[in-house]
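User: Please predict the structure of the protein below. I'd like the answer in structure-token form so I can feed it into my own downstream comparison script.

Assistant: Understood. Taking the following sequence of 628 residues as input:
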Amino acid sequence: MIIRPHGATDQHVPYAAGRFTKRDAFAVNQIGAASPFGGLLCSVGSDYSVELLPDGSGCSRFGGRELTHSSRLSKAWYIRDKVSGEYWTCFFSPTGKRSNEYEVVYEPGQASVFSLKNKIASTLTIATVPGLPCEVWRISLENRSATPRVLEFTTYIEPRAAATMEAVFRRSDNVLLMRRPLGAPEIIPDEALADDLVLFHSCTLSAARYCIEKSDFTGDRRSLATPAYIEDCEKTSEDGCVRDLVAALTVEVELPVEGEAEFGFTFGVAPNPESALRITQALSKPDAVRDAIEVSRKCWQELSNTVQVQSSDRVFDALVNTWLPYEVYASWIRQRNAPANLDPAQVADILRCLHPITGAAAHIVRPALLSFAAGLSLLGSYSPDDKSIVSIPPTELLWLVISAGRYVAETGDSSILAESIALKDGPAMPLQEHCERVLRMALNAKSTDSNFGDDRLLAETIRMWSLIRQDFAEHAKMLETLQRRNLTREDRLEKRMLPRRLKYLQSITPVMADKAVLDDLSDHLGSGSNTIGDVSALNSLYSVLVEWTLGLSVTSEGLVLDPRLPDSWIECEMYRQFRGDKYKILLKRNTVEPGCRSSIVVDGEPMLGNMLPFFGDGEQHIVEVTVG
């Protein structure tokens, strides 16, 4: 099924058409637009990311700093037949030569491009590596012609360096090291690499030649579409200092008839040459590159498998199972790397980006929670560092409570609530007191402003917290009544427009056209739904689809199941991991007696209420639900 946006023409959605394949990968076979899924490659635990478009253009970043140019093509992968002299690229850019077959497949943290041209099938996989400041490239070549072939494979990288750079190729390690010369004059940090960073580019095969000067690579009055370095197989460079730095490595591969070859490259950044060599040595074999790509894939599979669903809506399944958890985090990485000031309405994105993966990433959520709380002040302002301060709205503060409650519910670890945290301008208090102070601030804001606009989010937050602290039970009842009154009002507020990213997702899945889902989403987004960023929008959608549409929510007392399936669904299956236990949940609509109430059976035993029992045995339990 080809996924194309439809609906109003004023959406201006710049996304390429594609289809979902195995493992929810998204395949694109057209160029000229960005992929709606996986366009930013990133890994949890690393500040390294890669922006990649289906035509091969993009940018590598580390810690908010561009390593390659985002304003022009700064990477390319060339294949040249040494006998005929014909050359082309794995991606469409920069040569612009069309292939017999061409497809780019995106997965969380990685992307692969398959190309068939001149009877050579090539697959290039680009992936970020968890915990490492680099990207790896795995290349697979297959000879589909009737004669043996001798090929040259050449990489091209143009680092974003605004000053003279020193480049040294270490043949013993097959690595090209690049840094500013020691003693060089200072430059503006925002314009190029910092003084103490070292770029590296390595390969798993012995390089036949290399190039470090852009003019030597392209040649006079030429471009990357017809580079002189590719056409002249004798051209090479020598170590030294250059003004216009590039990193190009060339390897030779002999392919018999129907023969195959596999090799890899690494590109990244390190604080010093020794660290760079340690990384490249660890990735110096094709097996090591393949394993790193598999680690990247498994990492995201483990982070997103807390909730899995199988329904009649293929797009819905892919969103919940894979892409929404990933895109929430990737949107945070993209936002953090953007050269813009901190938006007060997006301060809590540092917590929101971890919300969908809390069950599998508790070791990351805990320090993020404590760090966020330590940046708050008595009046609710936030200091991301020692040099700046920003005043944030009460709804952003609520995410400290939401994240803390979600962490306790998913892990059962309530000790975090006793962690002592010092405010920026006040005394040290346990995290629990910080959270309750935030709730009181939100309640006060609600009492003074009847158009608070985020009643449902506040009600859900206090209801969740009341399961931890009974003191807030009365507030939860009061807000539940208020929430119900607002939801039944015909003309609640002016018509709200969905954020741009959600309008695209609405155009590719019928579930998001359901009025109940749209109402829930509008309530979760709150009063500022027109201006929120991708992190908040995508996290809100994930919460609505899982917790309100599928009806599967987590509390400190256990899992709560209250499904409200879309009208077009007859049945679906869910898999939920919770504190080591596994639940296989079978949902089926009662079409025989549509007026009857819902019922839940766990391991053959009927249950009262909608709370699933926690067994603590680490086994799988079968939950059968008849939806009334």
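That's the full token string. The two ends are 32 Å apart (CA to CA).
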